[in-house]
Amino acid sequence: MKTHIIQLEQQDDLISVRDKMSWAKSERILLVWPPRRNVNIRPLDMVLLQRHAQALGAQLGIASRSGEIRRSAKESHIPVFRTTSAAQLAVWSDFQKPKPNFSETRRHLSRDDLNQMRGGFSIKEQIWLKKPVFRVGIFAVGVFAVLISFIIFLPSATIKISPVKQIQSMTIPVLIDPASSLVNISGLIPAYKINTTVEGSAEIPSTGMVTVPEKRASGNVQFTNLTEAPVQIPEGTIVRTVNEPAIRFRVTRSGEVPRGVGKMLEFPIRAVDGGFSGNLKSETLQAIEGSLGLNLSVNNSEPTSGGGEVNRSAAAPDDRTRLFNKLTDSLSQQAWVVIQKQVPGGGSLISDSLSSETVSEIYDPPEGFPGPMLSLALKQNYKAYYISESDLRSLAGMVLNASITSGFEPMPETLNVNPVGEAALSGEGKLTWQVEAERSIAKQNNLLEVISKVLGKTPATAAKNLSKLEMAAPPQIVISPSWWPWMPFLPMRILVENLH
Known about the structure:
Elements: E1 3-7, H1 14-22, E2 28-32, H2 43-55, E3 59-63, H3 67-75, E4 80-81, H4 84-89, H5 102-108, H6 111-121, H7 132-153, E5 156-162, E6 165-177, E7 188-190, E8 192-205, E9 208-215, E10 218-225, E11 231-233, E12 238-241, E13 248-251, E14 255-257, E15 264-271, E16 285-288, E17 296-299, E18 308-314, H8 317-342, E19 347-349, E20 355-364, E21 373-388, H9 389-402, E22 408-410, E23 416-425, E24 431-443, H10 447-452, H11 459-466, E25 473-480, E26 494-498
Parallel strand pairs: 1-2, 2-3, 3-4, 5-26, 6-7
Antiparallel strand pairs: 5-25, 6-24, 8-21, 9-18, 10-15, 10-17, 11-14, 12-13, 12-16, 13-15, 19-21, 20-21, 22-24, 23-24
Helix pairs in contact: 1-2
């Protein structure tokens, strides 16, 4: 008889195997399990596969060497073989278990049969268990076990002890270094910088005098032609002295020097700058600025005159210093207020650390110019340093811990750090300071020793035992429930608290 062989894979399950079986066209379907690998097929799935094979009009068989699979197949009444060859050569017998007829079974079971079956499943009670003394004893043992558990686990206690306290204090020298980033037990702590920019203006009356040119000198010069062609002289042509510093005059009208070498023409002139410096002697204006000097020569046959000067109010050198100091004092106060607002909570600003750098400085009028008032517009960058309270407390904790009395421990939330005096600048450019550190310390109590003295004792006995320990005040013992007469027998049921 033809057999359709289906080789199973590790990833196969009930659905995939059913699909593979649906393609079979023979009367026998053999499922071959892979060696040493499991297939996701449960024992119940084998029953479903068998029913599917019956629906296809075929008989289902299994080839596997696995003992577990072979047992599952036999329980489901499916023919099972070790190899595919053995399955093809063998005659498959009908392993399907006939369905029991439950209705027929029900018809043949009588009440006597049911009573007999019920009796077979009943458990006979031992004779000694029926005696009252044993029943009472068992009940008493149960009650006693519950009572013992109640005594051990129910009560709890809280012991509040007052350890012996001391005050620990110390004056600590502090070295504040902006270049440092860590707190050191030697007293070194970092300083943190704050920057701000402030600008403002101020003015004061001028207290000095300055000589100011008031009138410009005037006169005449003669231009001499050095060529055969006429030479045009425009208005504004500059003539000057040969010696330095040069005194310059401007021609006040235009004209033309006639053609011919040696021809001359006179022109009026006025000094470019006012003051007595324009009053020149004759024969002193002999230079022409520009290209006209190649074609002409110039000279003043008569002195120039009319130049004059006058004294006016102007800023004296001390006025500028006084105004600068006045304005910087005001800006420093403004900068200090701004910087104080920028200090983080708990920080301490170092008053002597404020410094400034000028960004812009504009005086009006400029130096050397007259003016009854001198004004200054100033812009400066300020910086200052502060220290963190947490750094001070950290340093204080380090130093105090290094000198704490043996057998004592610091009490929480009792550390106080107060500055002593003002910070001073050291020779190395660092700030030195002193702080007073103080805190409370308490004597350490051995909690295991405390608990061991009260386990299972009455409150009075427990208090007496604890009084032998060194404490600042008698201990407080609270038992829960309050009516319970003994301390707990388990250490875990006792809580020890320190009263600070």
